[in-house]
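Figure-free illustration: sequence to structure, shown twice.
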Amino acid sequence: MNNTLLITAAVLLVLAFLIGVKKQTWILSGFNQRRVHDQDRLAKLVGSYTFIIGLAMLVGAFIDHPNTQILFPVMVIGYVILLGYVNTKMVK
């Protein structure tokens, strides 16, 4: 069991709950949340992505495979793509 992935998964799942369910978009840094016209869509989009990545890391924590560390760069690349999408398509 990989403790780093397990801790990261727990943090991501808590963040997914806070962002996606509780709509606390103030947590998001770099997303220009004050300029986004649809806060609910922003919370749903980022919360869903965070939940999916959290689940992937949770599954990866219990799989004993040396390539599970690839999830960190995938997470970062996904957030950069999501950041670009939000800042170009959802900002007033």
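We now fold a second protein in the same way, so the two outputs can be compared directly.
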Amino acid sequence: MSLKIKTDNDLFFNWSLEEIDNFNSAKIIYQTTDLHNSDKNNTNIPTGYEIKWSSKGKKH
């Protein structure tokens, strides 16, 4: 089973990493703080918020 998390909330992102690390049977396969400039961007489906903030220059 896999779980994908995509967020623009830095606090939630960091909290999620800590919680996943505490969950012994879970493993992070890939993570980035800049999805739009990563090799995974080609499969990214942008949300309304991503479109809004990207147009205003927010990088992550």
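Summary for the second example: The chain has two helices and no strands.
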